[in-house]
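#structure-requests
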Amino acid sequence: MACDPQSGWVTAMQVGAAALSPIIAVVGGWIAWQQVRINRNKLKLDRFDKRFAVHEAAMTFAASVVVNGDLSLTALDEFLAQTRGARFLVSKAVADYLEELHLNAVKFRAVRRSLERVSIPDQERTEYGDRLTEMTEWFQKQLDVIPEKFAPFLSVDDI
């Protein structure tokens, strides 16, 4: 009995059809894995963007104290609004530091307002002036501290 040439083609087609399903499954799995990686990286990028915005708000805030020597209530409110969700984006320690930055700014503003009073004794004026200088120096130092505090949260190595 001779082998029918047409039955060889049929067998080859059947084998090809049977192999096609696992190949499609493997390709589909690979595409799904790539989508998972892309979505994970997108999440990291989004988180980085939000953390960087908080970092920039803190840097701008501290710089405005140093450069302008004064703070408006609007600047204080904007800083609070821009950093309010920091506790969910960075560590509790950094969020507490941002709170400290805000509280020192409020104190700075109060000392500044006290200095602007007309009827203030010279000794008290000197004390307020010294306190204002100390606080301005503290805010100047924060321009170096802020990047250090945020550095662990602004790494792009794992993206």
